[in-house]
Amino acid sequence: MKKLNESILNQTGFQPQSPAKIYRADKNSNVKKWFWGFFIFIIFFLMLPWTQNISSIGSVTTLYQDQRPQELNSIIPGRIVKWWVKEGDFVNKGDTILELADVKDDYLDTNLIKRTEAQLEAKEQKIVFYNEKINAIVNQIQAIENGRNLKLKSLENKLEQFKRKLISDSAEVVAAEMENNIANQQLIRGKQMYAQGVIPLTELEKRTAQHNKTMAVLTEKQQKFLNTKQDLIITKLEMNEVQQEAADKIFKSKSEIAISKSEIATTDGDVAKNQNQLSNYITRGKQRWLIAPQSGQIINAKKSGINEIVKEGEMIVEVVPTKVNHAVELYVDPMDLILINIGQPVRIIFDGFPAIIFSGWPRNSYGTFVGRVVAIETNRNENGKFRILAVPDVNEKPWPTELKMGAGARGFALLKNVQIWYELWRQINGFPPDYYKPNYNKADSDTMKK
Question: Any idea what the CATH number is for the domain that residue 80 is in?
Answer without folding.
Answer: 2.40.50.100
